[in-house]
Predict the structure.
Amino acid sequence: MKLNIGEHFFSWDRAVVMGILNVTPDSFYDGGYHNNIDNILRHCEKMLTEGADIIDVGAFSSRPGMEIISAEEEMTRLLPSLSEIRNHFPEAIISIDTFRKEVAAKAIEYGTHIINDISGGTFDKEMLPYIGENHIPYIMMHSGNNIETLHSDIINDDPHEVVRSFFEKQTRFLSQYGEQQIILDPGIGFNKSKSENFYLLKDINRYRINDFPVLIGISRKSLIYKTLKTNPQEALNGTTVLNTVALINGADILRVHDVKEAVEAVKLVKEL
């Protein structure tokens, strides 16, 4: 996988691990855990020490039943943390998890490298033109067309075809602005049934387009703990199992809460 970030070029000969850093009070697994700067910096350092290639910072929880906060509240949560992370870890590659162009633009001013958009450009119509014009590395996730129905508008057609068609449409839009750096995320857990989530995990290349890298984010999600009849806190082993499946099936990036275990999975699968 390769990324051009500013004047720097990053290349990996293996799958990349993205560590999740939620600065929210209500995320489904770690909401409120990182509620002050000291805890945020401590967790960021832990993930980097364990081998995270990218830190993905989010200030808007997309869990089922989430509160839809304003852009102002999102930035109030995000920007002080982002500023401290950039000051303490200047070499870290930072991604920001937001679907709002206003938040994305401000985060880029603060030194962010990648924008991770759960809507793939559908929730804020200004996002894709901003990304395209500025050629910002962009994670394009498939979820749906409405933030209010993020977990309830279940796909009724072949999920591979729906996701692939979405990627084709959105990347055509971005291509109007020249060459782009796009990472594809099928949005496992968003507006898909449990069986559809497993289906998307099973055949990653059916929705990969233009040989773009594919990100898989299944860390501690309900397809794991509902299948095993446990809870997010007990879903680490299941996460590692499905991350391994994703790697074998061609995933280029793993987005995870637990970096050490994901890094070990990457190393072992690479040996295969």
